[in-house]
Amino acid sequence: MESGKKTREMFKRAQNCMPYGVTSNYRYWGDDKSLVLKEGKGAYVWDQDDNKYLDYRLGFGPVILGHGYASVVDEVTRALRRGNVFAMTHEYEIEAAEKIKKLTGVDLVRYANSGTEATMHAIRIARAFTGRNKIIKFEGTYHGLHDCVMWSTWPPFEAVGFRNSPVPIAQGSGVPQMISELVMLVPFNDEELLEQKIKANWGDVACIIMEPVMGNCASIMPKDGYLEFVRNICDQFGIVLIFDEVKTGFRIAKGGAQEYFNVQADLVTYAKAMGNGFPIAAIGGKKDIMAGLLHGHVVQGGTYTGNVVATAAACATLDEIENGALEKVKAHGEKLKAGISKIFQQRGIAGFVQGPDAMPAIVFSEMESISDFRDMANTDGATYSKIIWKLFEKGVMPDTGVHEPWFISASHTDSDADIAIGAFEEALTEVVG
Ligand code: PMP
Hints:
Layout lengths: L4 H13 L19 E5 L2 E4 L4 E4 L14 H11 L10 H14 L3 E5 L2 H16 L3 E5 L44 E4 L4 H11 L3 E6 L15 H12 L2 E5 L11 H6 L5 E4 L10 E5 L1 H4 L17 H15 L2 H23 L3 E4 L6 E4 L8 H5 L3 H13 L2 E2 L16 H19 L1
Parallel strand pairs: 3-13, 5-6, 5-7, 7-8, 8-9
Antiparallel strand pairs: 1-2, 2-3, 4-10, 9-10, 11-12
Helix pairs in contact: 2-9, 3-9, 5-6, 10-13, 12-13
The structure holds 4'-deoxy-4'-aminopyridoxal-5'-phosphate.
């Protein structure tokens, strides 16, 4: 469906007061395509012209239960009446941290307000703990918008260099080139290259930061045994292992990727699903590492960290997650994956659906499977992109980014899956015949 007159007018208004009319670069879809939304309820969102979309973006993933989810809204409303920011420990904060510990197995928790903040703090903690400065990051992973991690997130393929010595490419300008000296890049799922890099540099390496599932690169899964390998090599060389679970946490399993793959990291960052869309994040970790968090050792904090609204939202959300919400997410994801895979098979189209049920991604490729950013860069993103725009016309809304998975909430029903599968089939026909 075409976005209508009211949406276009309001977007013009937005462009007069915010660069490109958005407050995140990733939300700009073009002057005549970017949407201005009015409302979200359950699995659906509406734009200013009351066009209705089945939402698989879910605000880039956080809305694990559904938009405007009653138990979360009620808890937040109750909490708000008694004030929001105390900059002092309060009960919701404690309760949410207890729930995080119980669900994930981390020893201690500190809060932040976004995934960006959480990974920034986690890296600082790892540097302090090891007394080393460099980090190892994987090509194609995204850990937020602080200088240290804005390297080779989705670099232009022509510029990435050899596989065994990737060129660090800054994500946009304004990131000082000198910071790249602190970042070592490796391809995901390649044990040999990681081992070589570590053996040559381990005395400088504070941490490996990784998305255990590449949630920002079409949900590429770790190969069997890969995470165990990374875990072991970190232990061998005294390197802190950080799982960035901003996308996978409280989504792919109650205990996130740590539970899903049965591998424990030293530090874990959470955000999106933990608050069903309220701005809250957390750094969880092992006691000996987190123990450094005191003035004089490692400093972490912020005026709004652990505020009442955010932690009340987390309490209510984590309760739902503990009590079975993810089963609904998984069931919908399974159906969606099976439906789309069947269409690929029946039509003999080179492509597949990959990733966990709660955040599957669609890839058009002649390859049987893909295992890192370089593989992904050689898939047919152009065809998939055309399909995404066709899906919008049919009222189904995955993200426009071809590397983004489809996010599923507990409010997505069985019949919604039928709608999405049907729309996908129509869109595919229109694009590839
Ligand atoms: N880490 C990962 C894995 C993410 O996917 C994101 C956001 N997409 C971030 C960190 C940054 O989170 P935020 O946008 O809340 O700063």
